[in-house]
Write a structure and sequence with these properties.
The chain is an alpha+beta fold. It has nine helices and nine strands. The protein has a four-stranded antiparallel β-sheet with strand order 5-6-7-8, with no helix packed on it. The chain has a three-stranded antiparallel β-sheet with strand order 4-3-9, with no helix packed on it. A two-stranded antiparallel ribbon has the order 1-2. The longest helix is centred in the last third of the chain and has 47 residues, at 273-319. The protein is globular.
Length: 367
Amino acid sequence: MGHSIAKIKRISIVFLLISFVGFVNESKATESEGEFSPKDMILHHVKDAYGMHIATLNFSNRDPLHITIPLPVIIYTDSGFTIFSSSLFDHDYHGHTIVEKGGLKLVNLHEKVYVLDQGSDSLELDAEGHPLNASRPIFDLSVTRNVLMMWVSIVLLLLIFLSSARSYKKSKKFVPSGLASFVEPLILFVRDEIGRPMIGDEKYKPYMPYLLTVFFFIWINNIFGLIPILNGANLSGNISFTFTLATVTFIITTLSGNKNYWKHIFWMPGLPVPMKLFLMPIEIIGMFVKPISLMIRLFANITAGHVIILALMSLIFVFKSVAIAPISIAFSLFITVIEIIVTAIQAYIFTILSALYFGMATEEEHH
């Protein structure tokens, strides 16, 4: 146990050092554009982006060199589809760079593409920073860094489970070996500690594919969000991602509901009629509150960890003192260690609550 904790600490220190280097580069870039703003820097890191920014190399005699992985920007307007590389934005975040494609003038304002109005040559903003002479495209189907990492996580999960299945197939006694020896205890954990207790021994099997998928999918993407070189490609910190997962859980729960489940929602048995009428709207609201709480819980917990670490590192640049650095780094390291554990905890919480809702929907009436 002590060896495992020491290993986690070493990994956290490496992560933190790499993150600090990238954080300093980002802070210098922000300071070059004006006074350092922790709010702008934190929002820039936690939001999705059109390109995968790896690092920034600053030189004294020339412009900074931004090392990025360009991704395709795909938008649909009245003029049809427009596709181009995110590298044309030149690491722009404030809408200064104008990209002319397909007869359109496009800008990247806080990682959102805007189309300039006809006759406009530059982006104009109001006092609150909202564009005055630009509008969003009808559809934005761009491959952002979160979308890219989602695809990477899907490929990784396929490799893990296909290779594990192959090792079982080669084994004569179905004894796990290699990667399968790591995956099997996790699968048994989801089955014996989540599926069976929450849904029941007789009904848990049809739900196991979804429970296993959502557990490993969330966990893998939470881990990706901690890798500094990916520069905050945090899929679980995107409300659209958590909304989609919560919606799937809601749909499965609704379709799985039996007669007893719906009777407890619309006409609570064993109660006077006035109380039934009083509880019915509350139960209906509760149907939607459950997936909403799933969505917000995962999003808020993952995002909060990143915000806290970035806020602690910002103290060095806010106070402009090296004396603050040991305190900021020490607390950031502590939060990073916690974040490594939280990656699995949040996947577990989402999975067990989903299983609980499935169990409630399929529970038979007790006599």
